[in-house]
Design a protein that fits this description.
heterodimer, A: 345 residues, mainly alpha, ABC transporter involved in vitamin B12 uptake, BtuC, 13 helices, B: 421 residues, alpha/beta, Rossmann fold, 2 domains, six-stranded mixed β-sheet, six-stranded parallel β-sheet
């Protein structure tokens, strides 16, 4: 091929209209994210608007709102990106941290460590214990699913055994709670309902580091996640260490989910639906999807939390309730219109 | 210098509890176009998976350009060998260009950088397979043929030296199959790409392949040029059904035909029928008689008659005469011999002219010898002889005891009736 030819082709395929549209869409999305985050800073149980910064209570309110915003961003980003990875690796639209039992395992680990420990150890140990418990759960799920198959488990047996292990985990959590002291029970239930109540700054820093690290790792893995979309066999033919990508991807996704659970308890919906909506808008290319879904999931949770605190103030609605109640119908409408751009059902 | 692109040395391979490949050895030279054939479940797909290092051999070695394929780094292996699977499925809405880009995945840098060489290879392979115009479309929206071309583009983007296709074209309609095959042939002829095609279309493969590998129950039964491997006896054993191989007299192409009827044939009635036909009027009769379980002979037919072709295909003994010449005494004598062996003689709805009037005389001979003779009605409309000689002869035969028939159904009933009498 002559250089001339290749220039013409390059011109057509990589600077076409659709690319400009895609770029514009990303700019609009980021503008919307900034706008929504700013709005969330104005909402709270103490009233709508910027609090009086001169008064000590005013600046305390603002700093509290800001730390909840950070909590929401971290948790939402982690859950959403984790969902993206699970869906890409398992090539299944139902995959998410909950379905594979990862959240359940992390929850069980966190419950044990809340009930058993106290003080600083709990706060810093929580993400670590949650992660270890989640990885152990994933391994159990994988082993159960592998039984009977020659080598690799099918996606269906993975999801099925994930659902089973997940419900076992929640039963064990219930049992532990029912036998716990009043104080312990109170702590666990509060944490389980899902709340963006800021945790200690040490835990926040550790969690932020874990989440950012895992996001970066997943982003580096993302072109390979794209190749895995055609299946493990095809990825192997294309020169990929398919099993390596699978294991590393699962570990990163589990780390994200476990950290999110240890930060804010069991918040559903974000890990399943946000990835779908972002995929519907920006396509399934994981190089774009991973950062955008992280941003989108974080913002979604921040907005939901702002609503949860404001709508029935001074009563605070559990944020998990808002994510499903407010987000559900909204996302359903989007998905109905744009599902074709995300998954082929 | 031609060297071995892919070599199997005494390879046995399979899955946990099931050995599929049994001591397979062969070699494919660089630039060869080889078709791998064999019945379903004989291990063709397992062979491809073993060649691509997806399966580790239980024993033996697979070599890719002289190196053990399991010792080659995956990225290098992908630049030597590409595999087009039966069908690729993308559950997510990837566009065509995103799918094709996957072919470069092994060379994409740790930081996700895509070089201009990667872009060039992707574009070039999309041009080669004529899918550049589809690049913004969703892969899943495409037709089967387009998807297969995209899959091929993706594998070409790997820039491999060998391409293996696992029945990738079997499910395509004939138009798209030709399209993909044309691309493969171009790759083979223009770029000296080595191609290993798993195929179920033996005739089509025969027309494009340099060599055939025939497999049966995990073993390599025969390797060689198409005409050697496409041996009817060998194929019939391997595929466990009646197969015939015909060579097109004009192009020399080999055609493998299955004789489906032979499977449906009822048990032999031990009764034989001689059919006098011509001009295509016998084909339906032959098929029906065979299905009903009769031994069938036919003739005299001229060598180029379509009935003669049909009779050969159905393995019916046929008395032949050269085209455009009067029926000679040898042929008549042979036909009379057959009539002697037959229980009944059937005259089809063949038009009668001076050239084949002798066939009617054969019927008359049969009647004289006490055979049941069944004549198709309506001879008056098919009589092209001078002075209506055929009509006269038929009328006389009917008077002498020949039986008329209108439909094949009626003919079968008559045959049954007279075979019991």
């Amino acid at each position: 091929m002559t250089t001339n030819d290749s220039e013409i082709c390059r011109d057509n395929s990589f600077t076409g209209r659709s690319l400009i549209n895609a770029g514009l869409r990303i700019v609009l999305f980021i503008a919307a994210v900034l706008f929504l985050l700013a709005i969330s800073m104005l909402l709270g149980p103490s009233g709508i608007g910027i609090p009086d910064l001169q008064s000590p209570s005013g600046s305390a309110i603002l700093s509290l709102r800001f730390s909840r915003l950070l909590m929401g961003l971290m948790t939402g980003a982690a859950l959403s990106a984790s969902g993206v990875v699970f869906q890409a690796l398992l090539r299944n639209p139902l995959a998410e941290p909950y379905v594979l039992g990862v959240s359940g395992g992390a929850g069980l680990g966190a419950t044990i460590s809340i009930l058993a420990g106290s003080g600083l150890f709990v706060s810093l140990g929580l993400p670590v214990v949650a992660f270890i418990a989640a990885v152990l759960t994933l391994m159990v799920v994988y082993l159960i699913a592998s039984q009977g198959s020659s080598g690799h488990p099918s996606v269906y047996s993975l999801i099925l055994s994930g659902v089973i292990v997940s419900s076992i985990c929640s039963s064990v959590i219930m049992f532990l709670v029912s036998t716990a002291s009043v104080e312990g029970m109170h702590n666990v239930i509060w944490w389980m309902l899902g709340s963006l109540q800021p945790v200690s700054s040490g835990q926040q820093l550790l969690s932020a580091a874990l989440i950012l690290g895992a996001l970066a790792g997943i982003w580096l893995l993302s072109p390979r996640l794209n190749a895995l979309a055609l299946g493990r066999e095809m990825a192997h033919y294309q020169g990929l260490h398919a099993d390596f990508v699978l294991v590393v991807g699962l570990l990163f996704a589990t780390l994200l989910a476990a950290t999110a659970v240890s930060l804010s308890g069991m918040i559903g919906f974000v890990g399943l639906i946000v990835p779908h909506v972002m995929r519907a808008f920006f396509g399934p290319d994981n190089r774009k999807l991973v950062p955008l879904a992280a941003l989108g999931g974080g913002t979604f949770l921040v907005v939901c939390d702002a609503l949860a605190r404001t709508l029935l103030a001074p009563i605070e609605i559990p944020v998990g309730v808002v994510t499903a109640l407010a987000g559900g119908p909204f996302f359903l409408i989007i998905l109905q219109r744009r599902m074709k751009q995300a998954w082929i059902a | 210098m031609e060297q071995a692109a892919l070599t199997f040395r005494e390879v046995s391979a399979g899955y946990k509890h099931r050995k599929v490949l049994d001591n397979v050895s062969f070699s494919v030279r660089e630039g060869e176009f080889v078709s791998l054939i064999g019945p379903n479940g004989c291990g063709k797909s397992t062979l491809l998976k073993t060649a691509a290092a997806l399966l580790k051999p239980l024993s033996g070695v697979v070599e890719l350009f002289g190196q053990d394929v399991h010792r080659i780094k995956p990225a290098l292996r992908a630049s030597l060998l590409g595999v087009v699977p039966q069908k690729i499925e993308s559950p997510m809405a990837f566009t065509v260009s995103q799918i094709v880009m996957n072919g470069r995945i092994s060379s994409i840098g740790r930081w996700g950088t895509i070089s201009s060489r990667d872009h060039d290879l992707v574009e070039r392979s999309m041009i080669y397979t004529d899918v550049l115009g589809l690049r913004e479309r969703y892969f899943t929206e495409l037709s089967g043929g387009e998807q297969q071309r995209v899959a091929l583009a993706m594998v070409l983007a790997q820039d491999p030296k060998i391409i293996m296709l696992d029945e990738s074209i079997s499910h395509l309609d004939i138009n798209h199959r030709q399209e993909v095959l044309q691309i493969l042939m171009n790759l083979n002829r223009e770029k000296q790409m080595t191609i290993l095609l798993v195929s179920h279309d033996l005739s089509l493969s025969a027309s494009i392949s340099d060599r055939f590998l025939l497999m049966d129950t995990g073993r390599l039964v025969k390797a060689g040029i198409p005409v050697e491997v496409l041996d009817p006896a060998l194929l019939s054993t391997v595929y466990n059904c009646d197969l015939r191989v015909q060579q097109d007299p004009y192009t020399g192409y080999l055609q493998v035909l299955g004789a489906v009827d032979s499977l449906n044939r009822r048990k032999n009635l031990n009764r034989s029928v001689h059919v006098i036909a011509g001009g295509g009027s016998g084909i339906e009769l032959y098929r029906r008689l065979l299905i009903e379980g009769y031994e069938v002979t036919t003739g005299v037919l001229n060598r180029l008659d379509s009935d003669a072709e049909a009779a050969r295909a159905l393995n019916i003994h046929v008395v032949l005469e050269q085209p455009f010449s009067p029926v000679g005494n040898d042929a008549i004598a042979e036909a009379v011999q057959m009539i002697d062996k037959a229980d009944a003689v059937i005259l089809s709805q063949v038009p009668i002219g001076s050239g084949n009037l002798v066939n009617l005389e054969l019927a008359s001979e049969a009647l004289k010898r006490g055979k049941t003779v069944l004549l198709a009605n309506g001879i008056a409309d098919r009589d092209y002889t001078e002075g209506k000689a055929a009509l006269q002869l038929v009328t006389r035969l009917m008077n002498d005891g020949a039986i008329g028939w209108q439909s094949i159904q009626e003919l079968m009933l008559q045959l049954q009736k007279h075979s019991h009498s």
